[in-house]
Amino acid sequence: MRKLILSTNITLDGFMAGPDGELDWHFQNWNDEMGVYAMEQINAIDTILVGRATYERMAIHWPAVAVNLASDKGEIEFANKMNSLPKIVFSTTLSAVEWNNSKLVKANIAEEVVKLKQQPGRDMIMWGGVGIVATFMQLGLIDEYRTFIAPVVIGSGMRFGKDRSRNLDLKLLSTKTFSNGVVLLCYEPK
Fold first, then answer.
1. Against a cut of 0.90, is the pTM above it?
2. Per-residue pLDDT for 12 more than 80?
3. Among 35, 21, 23, 2, CA closest to 120
4. Torsion of CA 62, 71, 31, 49, to 10 degrees
């Protein structure tokens, strides 16, 4: 059975984004070493799951990177993977998705994810905003958490694991420290 991997970036004080969804703190810490890891990660999966806000940002960004002459070879390679891989978009407000190989799911999240897990293929990765991540956590759909802890404190914003009604006990699988001070913690539910 395929796994659903949540790959997310959070600040040291536990925020996935700033108060208005800002991610500038994340990109200021990005380096080539993390780019290599990101490429390894995307080469190991065959489906991307996202929420509406993440979809809207990525659907504008990645097609543009792929054709931007200023993009470096690694960015273009990653963009081409992003543009070609199947993407499942979870949203109750979107009426359609137009980015290449995207499918919209408006209801029955758990049922859809269980079906996806039972299909043959590689693992799936989720990049999502606070809301969709919280929903997937509440539904117990995430099989592995890959959390990049950035060495930055932003003081306020959109908190990781918001609205938890019960504890989620995790087992540490591995750690990786990047030269820029970012620490990757990989966990699975106990």
1. yes
2. yes
3. 2
4. 10
Which run of H or E residues covers position 42? helix 32-43
| SS3 of residue 98 by DSSP | coil
**Amino acid identity, position 121:** G
Average pLDDT of the segment spanning 42-58: 95
Q: How far is CA 173 from CA 95, 145, 163, 170, in A?
A: 39, 9, 25, 9
The Cα diameter of the chain in Å comes to 48
Q: Vertex 4, ends 166 and 26: CA angle to 5°? A: 80
Query: CA–CA separation, 142 vs 3, rounded Å?
Result: 8
**Which two tokens mark 175?**
């750690």
Identify the DSSP state of 74: H
Rounded Cα gap, residues 123 and 63, in angstroms: 23
The packing angle between helices 130-138 and 109-118, to 10°, is 80
Residues 131-149: pLDDT tens digits? 899 899 989 999 999 999 9
**Which tokens is 78 given?**
């990653």
Cα–Cα separations (whole angstroms), residue 170 to 131, 148, 185: 20, 16, 11
**148-163 confidence digits (pLDDT tens):** 999 999 999 988 877 6
In 3D, which of 70, 68, 78 has the Cα closest to residue 30? 78
DSSP class of residue 166 equals S
